Amino acid sequence: MENTYIKEKTFEKFDFNSNPLTKGDYENCLFLNCDFSNSDLSDCDFIDCEFSSCNLSLSKLNQTAFRGIQFKNCKMVGLRFNGCNEFGLSFTFVDCILSHSSFYKIKIKKTTFQNSQLNEADFTECDLTGALFDNCDLTKAIFYNTVIEKADFRTSFNYSIDPETNHLKKARFSIYGIPGLLEKYDVIIDDNI
Predict the structure, then answer these.
(1) What are 111-150's pLDDT values in tens digits?
(2) Cα(63)–Cα(49) distance, integer angstroms
(3) Rounded distance between C-alpha atoms, residue 133 and residue 138, angstroms
(4) Which run of H or E residues covers position 112?
(5) Over the stretch 69-99, which tens digit does the pLDDT of each residue have?
(6) Contact, 71 vs 48, CB < 8 A?
């Protein structure tokens, strides 16, 4: 059976719970105010698409391809990106809620996370080389054996990253982020002297 190929189409206010998205290839498409929550997006290929103000929470992403994707103002709670097709995997997140999502063991170098909530997101063994975390809330996000070399956390907050169990070479942090790097030592850092 041949895959459906859809190019340069706008999907606005679609509810993909009641009418599931047709499996296939979507190129240069815009998904605006769509509800994908609990949908099965497995084996779909999205190339140079934009998802704006969509809810993708708890969607299945088995072998889903995201190549050159922009997510803006999307709710994406509990997604397992580690199930995605890793070939060409690339995306940008702006004003998104990605809490409880998993990026376990995937390579997403130079990914931008901007103004996003990443509470309890799992970055275990993920390659985030050169990633930008701009004004992101990383409360209880998990970093273990994570490559964050040359990543930029200067404007982000509430993270706890153990320098002994992660690869931090040339990663950038602000002076205000130092407590998040020393948390396991239970030291008190006081700037009122």
Answers:
(1) 999 999 999 999 999 999 999 999 999 999 999 999 999 9
(2) 17
(3) 9
(4) strand 112-114
(5) 999 999 999 999 999 999 999 999 999 999 9
(6) no
Integer Cα distance of 123 and 118 in angstroms: 10
pTM above 0.90, yes or no: yes
User: How many beta carbons lie within 10 A of that of residue 4, not counting itself?
Assistant: 12
Q: Please name the amino acid found at residue 40.
A: D
DSSP category for residue 73: S
Strand partners, 50: 30, 70
C-alpha torsion 153→158→164→169, nearest 10 = 0
- H/E stretch holding 172 reads none
Place of tokens 């609990």: 38
Alpha helices in the chain (DSSP H): 178-182
The total number of residues shown for the chain amounts to 193
State the CB neighbour count (10 A cutoff) for residue 86: 14
Residue 192 token pair? 């009122």
- Which amino acid appears at position 16 of this protein? F
Return the pLDDT at 193: 65
